[in-house]
UniProtKB/TrEMBL annotation:
InterPro entries: ATP-grasp, RimK-rel_E_lig, RimK-rel_E_lig_ATP-grasp. It comes from Halomonas caseinilytica. This is Alpha-L-glutamate ligase-related protein. NCBIfam families: rimK_rel_E_lig (TIGR02291). GO terms for biological process: SOS response.
């Protein structure tokens, strides 16, 4: 359905121009961008601030180092290879298990050592990096995502995007991979976005390709029961990334590991705006409220403020009640 700029403003929807000028331009010092644009820098910085991230197996920075991939991967039953400067999920290779001489992807596809080496070589050449600049390949332990989400995702690890403004978590969504998204949690490729209530970690509403969605397109599981455990810890980790980076407008991507709980995957200094669609609400009113708050509050105080002021009732629950 078509809408008008006036209706979007009334719902508090912000567009790219306002995001770029009012929030990113004002609150994100460009000299700090490398802290989040380079995933290796982000990981090392997170370790200094005791923010949990997937364990680092190793890095490859030269073509000569590609020949040592086998030794680096020896003893690891699953792993992820990603470009340090990649964006939009490009160049991420997930190997779920190793069987003999084959590396098995979540889809069941078999790769040889030569395939893995070729992928790493492509990363180094800048095939997936921002601007095509030479890159570094990061190899991490595979995330063992919480089994409670297995019915909500397809061949991929669901992640949670939290927008953090001046250290306050202001809006959140979970991204669920689908067959259309090739097992990647990328909304533009067809993943399902589920708005999450900041107060409770409960699903609010779901969307896929900008249309409302009440169940997962591949598993058929309804979305109303989706609730993120250890939600308070996840919000505190996300909010703490403000002190870690000094970036005022930030997208934090988190995952839930069944052994280690909430973990930071990566950060984004220019987070997209689809989170508004997933939540059925604009960011502007929440951002305006945060701008009126005093500086200097601790993480716990900021999280408590957000949970109190940004609580939402699930539209999915309302739909279920109406059809019961």
């Amino acid at each position: 359905m078509w809408t008008t700029p006036g209706k979007l403003r009334a719902k508090g929807i912000i567009g790219m121009n306002r995001r770029n000028i009012r929030y990113i331009g004002r609150y994100n010092d460009r000299r700090l961008y490398p802290l989040v644009d380079d995933k290796l820098q982000t990981k090392l910085l997170a370790q200094r601030y005791n923010i949990t991230t997937p364990a680092l197996i190793g890095t490859v920075s030269t073509q000569f180092g590609v020949k040592h991939i086998r030794d680096m991967l020896d003893g690891h039953t699953g792993f992820v290879i990603k470009p340090a400067k990649g964006s939009g999920g490009k160049g991420i290779l997930v190997v779920e298990r190793v069987e003999g001489q084959h590396y098995i992807k979540p889809s069941g596809a078999h790769l040889t050592l030569k395939d893995v080496e070729r992928h790493v070589s492509n990363i180094l050449s800048g095939l997936y990096s921002l601007g095509g600049s030479p890159d570094v390949a990061i190899i991490e332990d595979l995330i063992n995502f919480d089994a409670t989400f297995s019915e909500y995702t397809y061949e991929g690890v669901p992640d949670i995007r939290v927008i953090v403004f001046k250290g306050y978590p202001v809006m959140a969504m979970m991204r669920l991979s689908t067959a259309a998204s090739d097992g990647k949690a990328n909304l533009h490729q067809g993943a399902v976005g589920v708005g999450i209530d900041i107060a409770s970690g409960q699903a609010i509403r779901g969307v896929q390709f900008d249309r409302s969605r009440h169940d997962h397109p591949d598993t058929g599981h309804e979305l109303a029961s989706l609730r993120i455990s250890d939600w308070g810890t996840l919000l505190r980790l996300a909010a703490g990334c403000y002190e870690m980076t000094a970036l005022g407008y930030l997208g934090t991507d988190m995952v839930l590991d069944r052994d280690h709980g909430p973990m930071l995957l990566e950060l984004n200094a220019r987070p997209g705006l689809a989170i508004q669609m997933a939540n059925g609400e604009g960011l502007r009113n929440r951002l305006d409220l945060i701008e009126r708050q005093p500086d200097g509050l601790e993480v716990e105080q900021r999280v408590a403020f957000a949970q109190h002021h940004f609580a939402r009732r699930s539209e999915l629950d309302t739909l279920q009640e109406a059809t019961a």
